[in-house]
Amino acid sequence: MATLVTLQNRLPFIESQYYYRNRTADGHRKKEYDAAVKIQSWFRGCRVRAYIRYLHKMMTIIQKWWRGYLGRKQYRQMVKTAYLTMKMNFYNEMAVRIQKRWRGYKIRKYCFNYYYLKEYLRAISDTNQAIREALEEFAEMKAREKKKADLEKEEKRKQNQARKTHYLLSTKQSPGIYNSPFRDPDPMEFELRKVRACHMTPPRPQIQQTDYEDLSSWLACTSKRSFPRSDILPPINRKQYQGPFRDIAEVLQQRYKPLQPTLRVATSINSLRDAQEELKREEWKHRVNDNMFLPFSNYNKNEKYIPMIHTSTKYTGISYGQKPFQEEEPEKWISNKNFQTVFPPFALFEKYGKLYSRAGEIV
Amino acid sequence: MSQRQVLQVFEQYQKARTQFVQMVAELATRPQNIETLQNAGVMSLLRPLLLDVVPTIQQTAALALGRLANYNDDLAEAVVKGDILPQLVYSLAEQNRFYKKAAAFVLRAVGKHSPQLAQAIVDCGALDTLVICLEDFDPGVKEAAAWALGYIARHNGELSQAVVDAGAVPLLVLCIQEPEIALKRIAASALSDISKHSPELAQTVVDAGAIAHLAQMILNLDAKLKRQVLSALSQIAKHSVDLAEMVVEAEIFPVVLTCLKDKDEYVKKNASTLIREIAKHTPELSQLIVNAGGVAAVIDCIGSCKGNIRLPGIMMLGYVAAHSENLAMAVIISKGVPQLAVCLSEESEDHIKAAAAWALGQIGRHTPEHARAVAVTNALPILLTLYMSQDSSEDLQIKSKKAIKNILQKCTYLPALEPFLYDAPPNILKHVVGQFSKVLPHDSKARRLFVTSGGLKKVQEIKAEPGSLLQEYINNINNCYPEEIVRYYSPGYSETLLQRVDSYQPLI
């Protein structure tokens, strides 16, 4: 009880104590709380930081590996491409070398072949030379021909001249002007001797130009004579006619006697055909029956022969083949057998027309 | 009055008419009478005589008309205006051969003056009757008709086409196959006139088979026929490659070269023209001509004649050389360049010189080898004088300038270039110095020679604008030499030396 009493005695103290303590506790509470929060936050911060640090570390490791992987991959790729480029460069270089050689060879051989070009140019100059020579020759030939023609013309002119001046020829009595007795005779003299004089040839017949003189041509304006005439044709034969000739009357009679053709000439060339035609026509005119005669065809095989009324009779004769041509008298026969040949046939004639030699013997 | 007396009157009348036309026809042959005849009204008097009863008078009247119309185009126009043509055309079909000949002569004489007059003839329907005359039996009539057709076709393509449409070409081709030389000549000339206008017309002539017959006649003896034949072939060949090949296929080639040696100048000219027309189309055709030795023959031909006859040959060389360097080389090998240089110097007419200059330019423009071949013949100075000369025509100046430029740009033959340093105008000097600047760095002997001949000195004297192409070339040349030499040859060097003497203070 005493305790109780002590306790009770001490109650106000306790109360005040309680109160006091509570008050101090309350007074410190905020501070303590803040401190606790601080401590906690620091701790938590440490913990989270450590975790993040940890995460970072891990991340670095991951990234390190990944980057390493990527880098290695890229590097391999790079090496591969570098190798490839190197290879390609090398190949290209080699290809260029080959192409260079080949192209050079080809061009030199086929396009700009120096020796070929040289040969070609040489050939051209050869051809030129040949052509020049040939043309020269041709021109020379032409010139020669021309010269010859000129000479001939000159000769002809001279001859003509000589013919025209034939009267200058020297005669036995008096020498001509070209045949001086004091000098050698002029070449013209010989020329004169060679040719015939102009007047020795018969003169050309002069054709009268009667185009408009007579009236008949005017009336018949398309007649032959009204056309302008060309020069008369030169005579075909300039030689002198050589006599002796027949009497002119006789010749004329011969010339103008009436034509007496032979029978062969007088008949026309198609007289035979005409005669045949005529014959055919005649035959056609006189024919009674137009049926054609067809002896060997089957056409009239079944046709019954119709006898004419006038010639038909019931007493017909014996048909052909039945009637013997020779009289038969069987009672005079000595035997009923026919004759027989006694001699064998002649052997040589059996072979007639066949070969006699042994080589071509008939088996 | 007796019958005889009556007829006497008629006879006298006829005689008088005949005499009249004959005298007029004879007077019309002299040009001094024409004026008087015209003033006397001869046209109106001749016209009724064309319808005369007597054929001789008709023919002589036509002949007189033809001679008058032949004289000048006024009279030809008077014939057209006098309505004489329809009458002529009408009777051309009806009458005998002498009249046909005379009528065709009138048509020819009228048609030759101008396209309008020829058109007037075509409008009269003369072509059909002329074509019918081509079928005539008489060669004289054919000749006259072919002549008239040729003169009509000569003027322009349309008239030619009209002649072709009238069906004249096959008959003309038949005419060249006739034995008469004169007829062949005229027919060939007519074919030439027809085919000269356009490729189509030429093709028509070719389709009628003219080439083979024409080619056969190249070797004919008659020079005038040869002229016409060669002219016809060249007129056909000039239009296109195909036609030229057709002509070549007729195997004209070694044969036509003989014509280049002919006595007749015009045969030569026409043969060269033919070869030129063939060569100008393609390198292959040129090659063919070169292989046949045509170039040598043409060069000989150029050497053997003068003036305009040379012109086609010169042009042919230019065309051949223009195609390729090998062909140009062939021309050089055939000794064409000296011949062209001779032409250049001795011809008097500008257009021939221009052609020669052009041909030389075509030869020299390929490689240094070609340029050298041209340069050694001493053609370059002649070209330069032609270019510089005041008398030269503009065309000649342009052509020579082009030729000089073409040759210089390839030329490495320095002795020929050297004179150009002294007397060439700046626009050519540029190329010369350029050539030196290309050659000198690689050739020590040339460098030495260049100094000793005074070329370097001349180069230093050239005034070039800084930065120009010329300056660059000069610098290139200067770089080939030691500096002292360059300075030594520079103008005014002696004065600078003297100045240095003045300014020098002797050390005592």
From TrEMBL, chain A:
Q: Which Pfam families does the record match to this protein? A: IQ (PF00612)
* Location in or out of the cell: Cytoplasm
Q: Which GO terms describe its cellular component?
A: cytoplasm; spindle pole
Its primary localisation, in coarse terms, equals: cytoplasm
Protein name per the record: Spermatosis associated 17
Task: List GO molecular-function terms, semicolon-separated.
Answer: calmodulin binding
Record's InterPro entries? ASPM, IQ_motif_EF-hand-BS, P-loop_NTPase
CDD domains assigned: IQCD (cd23767)
One GO term under biological process is: mitotic cell cycle
Which parts of the chain span the membrane according to its record? Answer: none
Q: Which organism is it from?
A: Sarcophilus harrisii
Q: Which UniProt keywords apply?
A: Calmodulin-binding, Cytoplasm, Repeat
Q: Where is the composition biased (Basic and acidic residues)?
A: 146-158
The record's region (Disordered) falls at 146-166
Automatic annotation (TrEMBL), chain B:
Give me the Gene Ontology terms describing cellular component: acrosomal vesicle; axoneme; extracellular region; microtubule; sperm principal piece
Q: Does the keyword Repeat apply?
A: yes
Native organism taxonomy: Eukaryota, Metazoa, Chordata, Craniata, Vertebrata
Chain coiled-coil ranges = none
Residues passing through the membrane, by range: none
What the entry lists under SMART domains is as follows: ARM
Protein name, entry field:
Sperm-associated antigen 6
Example GO BP: epithelial cilium movement involved in extracellular fluid movement
Query: Which PANTHER family does the annotation name?
Result: SPERM-ASSOCIATED ANTIGEN 6, SPERM-ASSOCIATED ANTIGEN 6 ARMADILLO REPEAT-CONTAINING
Q: What is the annotated localization of this protein?
A: Cell projection, Cilium, Flagellum; Cytoplasm, Cytoskeleton, Cilium axoneme
Primary location class: other
Function per UniProt: Important for structural integrity of the central apparatus in the sperm tail and for flagellar motility.
Key words of the record: Cell projection, Cilium, Cilium biogenesis/degradation, Cytoplasm, Cytoskeleton, Flagellum, Microtubule, Repeat
Against InterPro entries, the record matches this protein to: ARM-like, ARM-type_fold, Armadillo
Pfam hit, one: Arm
Source organism per entry reads Sarcophilus harrisii
Self-association or partners: how does it assemble?
Interacts with SPAG16 and SPAG17.
Q: Name one GO molecular function term.
A: microtubule binding
